Amino acid sequence: MVSLRFxxxxxxxxxxxxxxAPYAPGKSKEPxxxxxxxxxxxxxxxxxxxxxxxxxxxxxDAAGKFYEAGEDQNAQTALADxxxxxxxxxxxxxxxxxxxxxxxxxxxxxxxxxxxxxxxxTHDEQGQIQNAMDRLQRVRDDLLAAMFPKAGK
Length: 153
Known about the structure:
The chain is mostly helical. It is about 75% helix and about 0% strand. The chain has helices at about 5-20, 35-40, 50-70, 70-95, 100-120, 125-145.
């Protein structure tokens, strides 16, 4: 016969395991950037701005890590994705008239992160970052123009 103490310890162990299992190291449930890119064409136009912004933010983080590690080619590829998917997010937001404000705010934050990153890099690398910042600023301008059209005179 199993003792009462053994059952309590087992029940406590199972409860503890159930609470900590989601935090255990292992395969992350976060989809990869490639999976997210593939998903863009399958979701509705209204959902695409948020997905594209998510991809841009993930690639911006990756670009920073690549620059830090001295992997310039990978950093440039990630930076190109930041620009491309931010532009797509802006276009989809304007097209669907959904998530314009959220997209503009997210892109503004990415411009600030790029500015912070720019100051940690060499002069040659700074030009690439500045180019990306300029392109993102144009996306922001387009979003703001769509949200606040000028009244006819």
